[in-house]
Amino acid sequence: MEVSTSSPQVAGSVDWPSDWLRATLGFLCLRALSAGPSYGYAIISELERHGFGTIKGGTLYPLLTRYETAGLVTTEWRAGDGGPGRKYFALTETGRTELIRLSADWLRFSDATTRYLDQPTMEGSS
Amino acid sequence: MIQQTSDKKWFDQLVMELRLRQVHGSAIGDTIASAKELLRDTGQPAEKMFGPARDYAEALELPSAPKHDWIRQALWPSTLGLLAFLLFNQAVVPWTRSELLLVSPVQLAFLATPVVLIAFLPLYLDAIIRRIWLCVGLSGIGALSGVLSAVTAPEDRAEAWLAVDPLPWLIGSTLVMVALSIRNTTQSALTPGDDDITDPSSATAESTGTGMNVIVQITNWLFPILALAMLGLALVLR
To answer: Do B148 and B121 belong to one domain?
Structure first.
């Protein structure tokens, strides 16, 4: 996967509460790898393009390293064009299964949250 | 230019922090190369992109060698080598003068000081690497205790706690120093560059080469070399 230069699909504010990002960044990164192997800057750009703000390397790489240890991703150094190589991350089958599971869980959670928030408030009732 | 300097300092700190955590050289090389790749892509300073080097090294949670491996493989042999070298130094002058080796308790206490400092290194290694003044202070204490052990050496047999023939101590300490040097040389020959920091983006090792090999060999034979110099000095000054 390469860094896209198409117009951004920003999904609103990029100033999400850090707790929200901490909770979701894991499967968002797995999702960013679902289209194929990718490298650090491309993953950061992909998430930024979709409105999640700029993820720092100090957040991204420790997460990917933990996923590599857990067998969710594999890494490979590929030669660069006349320059230093790039480290590519790729989803394993376990990682793909985990992405499907977490995505489904998240959709159920966000659906429950939305339904609850959409309920009429009982303010003023006794 | 300023960014290059601060980035270099950050990477030096990162390597130090990962080494302190006993992370293997190949994993350190991978970490450095991937961080440099991202900095090239973004053009941002390392501190801004990754945070403090110490926090980043901790957050990575890279696999590390068992905590006590370096104590068994490096610290105990070094401590034993130092002890042998100190004993050699005590024995060499009386031997060249055909005198007895005289020892007092105070002198022994001063001699034991650097050995104790090194033996307990695992307890405070992190602190002395991060604080240069502590490193200088402890080195000063070690050197001062060496000088004081010479000053407090008994001048005649009446002052001495022990009076022994220096030759067995001289031979024994020499054998220990040479045996440890042979062991270290064999180990470094069997595992050349095993823990070097290698750059996976270009598949080259950063710390191999003739100069590095010479330094390794000098380090392996440091105590016998210094002991030989002390023997020469003692023979000249007798």
So the answer is: yes
Residues A87 and B30 sit within 8 Å (Cβ to Cβ): yes
Residue B201 covered by a domain: no
Residue B118 lies in a domain: yes
How would you write the pLDDT of chain B (238 residues) with one tens digit per residue?
A: 666 778 999 999 999 999 888 898 889 999 999 999 999 999 999 999 999 999 999 999 998 877 677 777 778 888 888 889 988 988 998 899 888 888 888 888 998 898 888 888 888 888 888 888 888 898 889 889 888 887 888 888 888 888 889 999 999 999 999 999 999 888 877 776 667 788 887 755 555 567 777 888 888 899 999 999 999 998 888 7
For A20-42, write each residue's pLDDT tens digit: 888 899 999 999 999 999 999 99
Query: Domains in chain A, start-ordered, CATH in brackets?
Result: 18-117 (1.10.10.10)
- Distance from the A107 Cα atom to the nearest Cα atom in chain B, whole angstroms: 29
Q: What is the tens place of the pLDDT at every residue in B162-184?
A: 888 999 999 999 999 999 999 98
Could you tell me if residue A87 is left (phi over 0), alpha (psi between -120 and 50 degrees) or otherwise beta?
beta
- Terminal CA-CA length for chain A: 57
B46 plus B80 within the same structural domain: no
Residues B73 and B107 in one domain: yes
CA B230 to mean position of chain CA atoms: 20
| CB-based contact, A71 to chain B, within 8 Å | no
Q: Domain count for chain B, please give it.
A: 2
Listed by number, the residues of chain A in 9-68 with a beta carbon closer than 8 Å to a beta carbon of chain B are 39-41, 44, 56-58, 61-62, 65-66
In a domain, B85, yes or no: yes
Query: Complex ipTM, two decimals?
Result: 0.82
Write out the residue range of the structural domain in which residue B29 sits: 2-60
Measured between CA atoms, the residue of chain B closest to residue A58 is B50
> Is the Cβ of B50 closer than 8 Å to some Cβ of chain A?
yes
Chain A contact for B204 (CB, 8 A cutoff):
no
B200 domain-assigned:
no
